[in-house]
Design a protein that fits this description.
The complex is a heterodimer of chains A (188) and B (93). In chain A, 72% of the residues lie in helices and 0% in strands. Chain A is mainly α. The model of chain B has no long low-confidence stretch (mean pLDDT 90). Chain B has a domain at 2-53: Ubiquitin-like (UB roll) (Roll), CATH 3.10.20. In chain B, 25% of the residues lie in helices and 22% in strands. The chains are: A mainly alpha (188), B alpha+beta (93).
């Protein structure tokens, strides 16, 4: 697994975590709000851990990778860039499809010859087990809901699309990097 | 459905009521209980119980006011004082 491939995974986790955090405070009910926000936080945590490994290899830092690149340099899929709030059916459809695809990727990383990568992947996988449980639970609950079934069909082909970015990615990037750009070099 | 959640802070300690979660079924309840009461290392174990499974008792009949059944009906202070005097240890403390 080379640095660019790892970056794609970290970027996916960062951007999906960001998108999912847009539900904080407005999820369908309180318990789900807490759970979904916590999943979003975990995803950003996974991104950070992967950025740290890549940063050591590239001679940079996790924050620089996360926030100092130009939008065109991010390697995330268009799938995670989609802004789905306030559509819960599409949100869950994306989450279910993402968790399925991510599971394969993480399991492959666990077999990596790089011990640091394999070790991190094993840790991530233990957390992802709960994300998968959460996604599966919603999948079962919504499986007969036409809006959900449509969303799954609509989104399935997009899962690994990485040819350029969606127009809405630019705005996400603006928001995500705003603080960092306003006070270059600040730490906290 | 409402589920009551009890948490154990350390192994061997009693479970105490942590709060409740609303969830459509036990599976969701488990997931939500984990997120709300278990993800910050504040618990080593949780009990997640449908509220309907909890038998609440909130009526305690004591028509004859038998205060000897109650802690406050059995003051020890005087008895301790007497015992200490008998033993000759009064005033030691």
């Amino acid at each position: 697994m080379n640095a660019q491939e790892l970056l794609a995974i970290a970027d996916d986790e960062l951007i999906l975590g960001w998108r999912n955090s847009e539900w904080t405070g407005i999820a369908p009910f309180l318990e789900e709000d807490v759970a979904f926000s916590s999943i979003a936080q975990n995803e950003i945590g996974h991104a950070r851990a992967i950025y740290q490994i890549v940063a050591a290899e590239l001679g940079t830092t996790a924050d620089e990778l996360a926030f100092d690149r130009k939008p065109a340099e991010y390697r995330c899929s268009q799938f995670v860039e989609l802004r789905v709030v306030p559509d819960w059916a599409r949100t869950i459809a994306r989450q279910v499809l993402y968790e399925q695809a991510d599971e394969k990727r993480i399991k492959a990383l666990m077999e990596s010859e790089d011990e640091q990568v394999a070790g991190l992947a094993a840790k991530i996988d233990r957390e992802e087990a709960y994300h998968r449980m959460h996604a599966q639970m919603w999948d079962e609950r919504l499986q007969d809901e036409p809006r959900y079934v449509e969303a799954l069909e609509e989104m399935r082909p997009l899962v690994d699309r990485r040819d350029g970015h969606l127009p809405e990615f630019e705005q996400l990037w603006e928001e995500m990097t705003e603080v960092r750009r306003s006070v270059p070099g600040a730490t906290w | 459905m409402i589920y009551e959640v009890f948490r154990q802070e350390r192994k061997g300690q009693p479970f105490t009521h942590a709060g409740s979660v609303e969830a459509p079924n036990g599976e969701y309840a488990e997931s939500y209980a984990r997120e709300q009461f278990g993800r910050r290392g504040e618990s080593v174990a949780l009990w997640v119980v449908p509220r309907s499974a909890v038998h609440e008792i909130d009526e305690f009949v004591d028509e004859l006011e038998r205060n000897y059944h109650r802690v406050d009906g059995y003051p020890l202070k005087e008895k301790l004082k007497e015992a200490r005097e008998r033993a000759g240890t009064a005033g030691d403390r």
